[in-house]
Design brief:
Length: about 200
């Protein structure tokens, strides 16, 4: 039954939302796709030419944060493109193998370089990946729980800081509007005062 539902929507990696749309957010937590090109033999061209002919095959290697034993590699299919549209698009534009969504570990001020190397070896490329490492995989990281909690706390603080910056910008905009309205009010008062002097 579940296989029928999954195949009806084309992928087993999605949940079906209220509108019947596939939603990948829950399944993609802590998951990083790495797109690359692999030269493969083009059988038809090889047969036609009588010599080895190759073609580029788009591939994806899917890393689950903290789980080096669970790295899937497969050709890029429409399902993969739907599951990781932002990463695939970025890869097609830049041909950089890894497109990191979120804050790259290298940009996180709290982490030493040696930890970055260790975490990337375990498929953790961003602070968000680190915050989303599953309990089943956290033991693979040295001080994994502590680092995961640091990542969560830092992301929460950044989120609150972003809200504070947003409120500060809105506050500044409102101050400018009030100042503009006060200036306009003074101008109108001067016009009324001048009009009343002329009438008298």
């Amino acid at each position: 039954m579940l296989d029928d539902i999954g195949s009806a929507f084309g992928t087993e990696f999605a949940t079906i939302g209220m509108g019947g749309n596939a939603e990948f957010a829950d399944q993609n937590k802590g998951v990083t796709p790495v797109f690359f090109v692999l030269p493969v033999q083009d059988d038809a061209a090889t047969e036609k030419a009588g010599a080895l002919r190759m073609q580029e095959q788009e591939m994806v290697r899917i890393h689950v944060a903290g789980d080096t034993l669970n790295v899937a590699t497969s050709p890029v299919t429409e399902d993969i493109k739907q599951r990781f549209p932002e990463q695939y698009k970025k890869w097609k534009e830049t041909r950089q193998e890894r497109h990191i969504v979120g804050t790259p570990l290298k940009a996180w001020p709290l982490i030493p370089a040696i930890r970055i190397f260790e975490f990337e070896a375990l498929g953790i490329f961003s602070v968000e990946n680190l915050a989303e490492v599953a309990d089943a995989n956290i033991h693979r990281l040295a001080d994994g729980r502590a680092w995961r909690e640091k990542a969560k706390a830092w992301l929460e603080a950044a989120k609150k800081g972003g809200a504070a910056a947003k409120y500060a910008a809105e506050n500044e905009r409102l101050r400018e509007q009030v100042a503009s309205l006060e200036k306009r009010l003074e101008e109108l008062a001067a016009i009324v005062k001048a009009s009343s002097k002329e009438a008298a």
